[in-house]
Amino acid sequence: MYFMKYSSKGWARRKEERKGFPEFFEKHIKIIKDTKACCEECESRLKGDVSEIAHVLPKSYYKSIATNDINVIYLCGMFSENQCHNKFDNSISEEFKKMNVYFKVSNIFKLLEKEITEKIPYKTYDRYLSE
Q1: 6, 22, 32, 37: which has the highest count of C-beta atoms within 10 A?
Q2: How far apart are CA 72 and CA 70, in angstroms?
Q3: What total number of domains does the chain contain?
């Protein structure tokens, strides 16, 4: 198994960046279970696993909105047949724009855009906004 090594400063910075994540994920797992939520892409029933909580804008880059509840959609995760979360995260723009959730995430991007403190690269605009 591969483990990433951090310096003490790096570990402190990572810990600070991920502050609030445990509560954030617990909250959304509870919502999935309590509402008996279904995947927003394929409509299959979700189990209530952390892998079913998809960030519209990647939490690794957009740290300013990583725990913003608007930056979330529920997609079937690693224990599902369809793997919609994986498809969502890894599809190229043309494939992404054909997904059922595209219109919804495009609107979420427009809502979040003004709250993002990081520089938004052109590729992000191309991915989330239709021509």
Answers
A1: 32
A2: 6
A3: 1
Query: What would the two tokens of residue 87 be?
Result: 């498809």
Asked if residue 74 has pLDDT above 80, the reply is yes
94-118: b or e for each residue (b if 16 or more CB lie within 10 Å)?
Answer: eebbebebbeebbebbeebeeebee
Q: What is the pLDDT of residue 30?
A: 98
Domain that holds residue 31: 8-128
Q: How confident is the model at residue 93 (pLDDT cuts 50, 70, 90)?
A: confident
pLDDT greater than 80 at residue 57: yes
Does 1 reside within a domain? no
**Does any domain span residue 2?**
no
Is residue 3, in this structure, part of any structural domain at all?
A: no
Say which residues have a Cβ less than 8 Å from residue 64's Cβ, sequence separation at least 6.
Answer: 115, 116, 117, 118
- Which residue is associated with the tokens 């090594």? 5
pLDDT at 92: 86
Contact assessment for residue 88 and residue 97, using Cβ atoms and an 8 Å cutoff: no
CB 40 within 8 Å of CB 33: no
